[in-house]
Structures
1.
Amino acid sequence: MDSITLATPDDWHLHLRDGAAMADIVDHSARQFGRAVVMPNLKPPVTTTAAALEYRGRILAALPEGARFEPLMALYLTDATPAEEIRRAAEAPEIIGFKLYPAGATTHSEAGVTGIEKIHWALEALERHGVPLLVHGEVTDPDVDIFDREARFIESVLEPLVRRFPALRIVLEHVTTKEGVEFVQSCGPRVGATITAHHLLYNRNALLTGGIRPHHYCLPVLKRESHRQALVAAATSGDAHFFLGTDSAPHARPQKESACGCAGCYTALTAMELYALAFERAGALHMLERFASHNGADFYGIPRNGGTLTLHRTTWQVPETLAFGPERLVPAMAGESLTWRASRRSG
Ligand code: NCD
Ligand code: ZN
């Protein structure tokens, strides 16, 4: 097969940052995706509909002339999110949901939720208004091994939450474990999960073999091979619970290549090429469209995109670095060869 054409895909989990850095990268996503759920973990976090609409305006203003890309904004849930804010978000079509960061779980999560019991009323309001909850699914207890934090979150937080709020729509973002996959599969269609390209392609050896590899460090951290295989099986199965979310999370090179490097992999530049590689290795390229272009829109109850994206078989080299405001950014697979190249046709 020399090319494969899909309905225009969407990225259901993306970090775009802000300002000059955002302006340098946003087109990478717009070249591949019709829409993206834009994460709210800016500094300060995007906690209100008003702030999200302003941020959305800055994203649209940074797009090149003629780009067709729709940012779907997620709001940052805190212990103190007012009920009024949930109602406002529910009424704004530009807002797709609320993101739950357990405080301290990941980059810029300090303002996150310090205990699930503190937001019960907010969860009730989300359920009542039909607003999805997007979850970073890791416990933050320092006594829990970092490789076990997702599995522990599922049993101690997510499972009770799904039971207690029977109509709440929930996305387990960037699922990385067999336990996560099995839990989501055991739920009805109101629970879904995004899967990143890097968790489909790499296991934790990629982080620690031949030296420490900071550009493979992200949260949730890469897991062992059996978990990667469970993710590939879920993504390529066609199961409507699972959809594409890159979790592309750019950090400037000095912040990655550091004694205390930031978490996040920059995959947006080559997102569909990386997913195609993972699906091809699994012999499942024919299942890519469901995962990338159908399941997410169906979960959120919004129309699938018009237009198409074609992946052509051709060998090309990923740049070593990219512009990122005043700094440089190292993309996933920097300097390596890829065997697919994506090109989008708006519809
Ligand atoms: C993300 C970031 O840098 O904003 N980092 C990451 O490793 N994925 C935050 C997140 O989604 O956890
Ligand atoms: Zn993320």
2.
Amino acid sequence: MRKLSVPLACVVLLLTACSPSADKAAKPAAPAAQVDAARLLAADDAANIGQWMSHGRDYSEQRFSPLTKVNTDNASQLGLAWFADFDTRRGQESTPLVIDGVLYVTTAWSKLFAFDAKSGKALWAYDPKVPGEWAVNACCDVVNRGVAAWKGKVYLATIDARLIALDAATGNVVWDISTIDPGQPYAITGAPRVVKGKVLIGQGGSEFAQRGYLSSYDAETGKLDWRWFVVPGNPADGFENKQMELAAKTWKGEWWKTGGGGAPWDSIVYDPKTDLIYIGTGNGAPWPAEYRSPGGGDNLYLSSIVALKPDTGEYVWHYQTTPRESWDYDNTNQIMTADLPIGGQTRHVVMQAPKNGFFYVLDAANGQLISAEPYVPGVNWASGVDKKTGRPIVNPAADYAKTGKTTFVSPFYGGAHTWQPISFSPKTGLVYIPAIQSSYAFGASREDDNPMGQKLSISFAKSAELTAKTNPKPVSKGYLLAWDPVNQKEVWRSEVANSGRSGGTLATAGGLVFAGNSENGFAAYRADNGEKLWSTDVQTGTMAGPVTYELDGEQYVAVQSGFRQTGNYYAPNYSRILVYKLGGTAKLPEAVPFVAPEINPPAAFGTPEVIAHGEEVYGRFCSTCHGSDGLSRGMFPDLRMSGSLQAAEAFKAIVIDGALAKNGMVSFAKAIKPEDAEAVRAYLVNRATIAKQAADARATAKAAAAPAGAQPHGN
Ligand code: CA
């Protein structure tokens, strides 16, 4: 079973390799990325129909393209037009922009690449050189979801919480500012948006007990214009505005000491019809509401859609999907605006499929609930949403901190859907969602499992115990879901093999839906009934949102591949931008078969008690990244094969002294004592010895079974 991201500090060794070479001589002669409000409003006009100028294509963020040259009749003829490899195997989540023949795509570690969208020729590359140590401030990998473009510049937000404006023609830096106070452990993974000449950006980090906020910067100068905090600070310091004062009444205790959370880390949408921006806000910190706000309170404005005025950041309305959030149900997921036929009239709505498993349709002008129904089976944290009050009917058993009992809650903390883009086709009236059916055994613990500064207050040990003794195992599977938002019902689904996960989606007027998945596939489906019309092996998982564009009469489909949980750390890096067109004949290099490296541990040492202690420490602080039982989780080294096991000094130099901090493997000296590190080494040597004995036994058995006279041969 593949696991989705675990919200712990993922600090890792990473491979360093050369960047794709950027041809500095090949610069577009015409002014680049000339995007403005008029052009975005005319995104479907002939002049712009072939473009993908903003994160969700246009202001509505429906990720629907009016292009039709690739359609249900010919999708089977799609082939690779060009591709380019990236220099990191970390997770890839970027939605490219394609503007006037140039494709801009970001990668893990906040790097940005510009390509000729037709030929794939590299135009320029930009590396903001984020400190590797900053990886410890990213809950869920050093990913980046894309850039914004505005009047000749592209805007990139970085994992170390900078916002950078670049000349779109050259990649030269115009301005580079920090969005945080010095020393704060925030991280940014999301794509900025530009609205009315202002660059909007939030940040991630609710797991680190922070106070989330959205900022607005002048697109020309990088000067801060306004900032809207999601949760109130210490009342003794005074409130920034009326809404913070009102919100403070929904909190108890001394929440400000742990920040409260609420980081708006993904969705920011501008609606020209209402002249409002809608943001999705994050989960609470620590996770159990009973711990951060003992005795009650909705904890505004956590897990909400909030509407703000773009010119001032003034609050207009909010809808809290998950009051008293306790399950990591960030509500940051993609928000779309649309006109839907509801009750005999056309309603202008916002739609969202957030982590909590309910699909919401709200009036875009005032946030009034129109409908909300579970879009995956098994949702049990709430039995429904009260249409009169707009509040969920919460299952008391789901309040695990209050009951003190470890309880299976569905959806799990990764959500029924999270950052992977969804799309909406006005032609079919359906929303295409990478959906997940799952549950998780939530158990509260003030002491347990809070490694590296994260304030989860969740007992992973209790969860593992309950999961281990539950038979049959709870359902955990992903699928591409076509959802009717008017009638709030499933229309079709396409399940992903091996209980894998669907990637982000794109809908087109050609009657198609495109989506990748965790099982190395990228495919086109009929938008009306889910029939798979075309699929291709991309050699790695593809979770990012695809886009489509047209150049010189040909339609292209582009998607970024690279999935951090799949494959093996020692396997080749297949992080790429892949571009397809009808009749494309480019070929990916053959996938290199994975050959496990040799395990060669030093002599086993340590008493059974020391090894057991090492296992416990490893489980708390190392397993999230390096895998349970010492086994690799894909993007991080399998420590059973680590050369550092050979000597106590070498292991200590990395774990305690931070010798590999620049690569993302920071010192654990704050959490792990040197003697504990040595116990971890004893445990890993023990695991490596067992693995080596098993490998030797297999080799012996194979040799014994070989026919007489057979000669060994090298490979
Ligand atoms: Ca979260």
3.
Amino acid sequence: MRFKDEVVMVTGSSRGIGKEIAQAFAEEGAIVMIIDVNAELAEEVKKDFIGRGLKAESFCCDVTNLQNVGEIVTKILDKYKRVDILVNNAGITKDNLLLRMSENDWDAVVNVNLRGPFVCTKAVTKAMMKARKGRIINIASIIGIRGNAGQTNYAATKAGVIGFTKSIARELASRGITANAIAPGYIQTAMTAQLNDNVREELLKQIPLGLLGTAKDVAGACLFLASSEASYITGQTIVVDGGMAI
Ligand code: NAP
């Protein structure tokens, strides 16, 4: 039990990579906060975890809403007096070529993917600083490193997340808080299930390990960055992509 009774907030954790990250922490003894806009699904995940003897709470939350996030963090702090680990995972795509991209699609992706981590990190920072302990893990993407046609909005936010991570790592290091990012490649989730067979085949040719990643691969990197083994690592981006971005 590497994270026994540690309080871990995971945003966007009612499905996909976030759910796997939450489960991985819960299986290591953590009390996980399932934070998602999809209240019903978040509640289902919580019940499923509790039914399996794991510790979890669920909160309906839009990560772009400072007041909403603030109220949830206050509830968590009132009950548990601490937030040990924050995983900024919630993210969306609204792909299109730049010439066809609407302002709305640009703004929506920037809001969730970039404003979300800002809002959630800001909301937990005071408590972590007071405790002189904390781990912040931001889920970026290799698209933020390589760029991708049709994903200017998404790539800009994920590159932004990497810069944000380096900056908070510098700001918070003296308080015993580390901040790191994970840049997954193509992971089997609902987000990548939309890819057609031709695109999938082309992608696989670009991945040295020859297969898509799994949410478990990302969760494993997350546990490592939150663990005591990673206590001297901050401001870094771990790429989990089967070698795609080499
Ligand atoms: P996903 O299956 O679409 O899950 C994302 C979760 O975030 C959903 O539960 C979604 O709720 C929730 N969410 C969306 N907007 C939110 C908001 N404003 N506030 C709170 N929750 C919100 O995505 P995923 O594939 O697991 O991706 C998770 C993260 O990994 C994202 O940051 C993504 O960019 C990154 N990533 C994914 C891949 C990949 O291959 N899948 C690769 C690189 C990076 P709804 O169900 O209601 O929309």
